[in-house]
Amino acid sequence: MFLKKLTVVCSFFLLLACNQPQTQSAQTKKVADTVFSTVISAEEKLVPAAALIVPGKSIGQITLRENADSVYKALGKPDSGDAAMGKSLSTWFADHNPKGYQTQVFCVRNLGNPDENISRIKQIRVTSPYFKTSERIGAGSTLTEIQTKFKVIKTASYADKKPPYQIYDDKKGIAFEILNGKCRAVIVYLPGDRGGITYLIF
C-alpha cells in the first residue's frame, strides 16, 4: 500500500515538472533563433549596389550626368550606336548577342558651353531582370506590381512598333516599358526631363 502511494506521488511531481515553462536558456535560444532568421530574411531582400536602380540617379554603376567616357571604359566599345547634333545613343548586348539583354545610355553634349566636348549621360535603359529598385521592381515585374510601388501614368503607346508597347512614367525619374502587362525595360532619367523626350530613340 505504501509503495502504491509513493508511486502516485512521484508520478504527480514528474508530471508537474514536465508542464513547467521552458528554462531561461531554452527561451533565449528560441528568441535568438527567431531574430537570426529575421535578419537573414531582411538581408536576402537587399539589392546589391551593382544591381540597384535609383530613380532619377543611376542604374548599377552607371550614373546620370557623369561623363560617358567612364561608361565606355567600364563596358568597352558599344555593340551599336548612333550620334547626331551633340546627341548619342550607345547599346551594349549581353555576351555581344543582339538577342541578349540590352544596356543603353543616351548622352548629350552641352553645345556652345565650356564643357561642350564632354558627353554626359542623360538617360539609362536596361532590359535585364538583374537590375532592381530597392522595392525589387525591374524588368519582368508586372504592371500591377509596379503600380503598387510607383505612381505611374501611361505617357506613350507605340502600336506601330514590333512588338507594340506602352510607357508608364513616374515623375521621380523612372519609367517602365510595358508589353502584355509586364515590364520589358526600365529607363532612368533626370526628373526635369520627363523621360518621354527620348523614348522614341530607344
Task: Explain what you see.
- The chain is globular, with a radius of gyration of 28 Å.
- The protein has an eight-stranded antiparallel sheet, covered by helices on one side. A four-stranded mixed sheet has the order 3-2-1-8, with no helix packed on it.
- Mean pLDDT is 80; it is low at 2-10, 12-21 and 23-44.
- The protein has helices at residues 2-18, 24-45, 68-75, 143-149; strands spanning 52-54, 58-59, 62-63, 80-84, 87-93, 102-109, 119-126, 132-133, 153-158, 165-170, 174-179, 182-189.
- The chain starts with a helix and ends in a 13-residue tail after the last strand.
- The protein is of the alpha+beta class.
- It contains four helices and twelve strands.
- Helix content is 27%, strand content 31%.
Number of helices: 4
| β-strand amount | 25-35%
Question: How many individual β-strands?
Answer: 12
* Arithmetic mean of pLDDT: 80
Structural class by secondary-structure content: alpha+beta
The gross shape turns out to be globular
Biggest beta sheet summary: 8 strands, antiparallel
Helix content: 25-40%
Order of helices and strands: HHEEEHEEEEEHEEEE
Distance between the termini: 96 Å
**Radius of gyration over alpha carbons?**
28 Å
Side by side, the strands of the main sheet go: 4-5-6-7-12-11-10-9
Low-confidence stretches: 2-10, 12-21, 23-44
Task: Kindly summarize this structure in a few lines.
With 202 residues, this protein is α+β, with helices and mostly antiparallel strands.
Question: What brief labels describe this structure?
Answer:
single chain; 202 residues; alpha+beta; four-stranded mixed sheet; 4 helices; 31% strand; globular
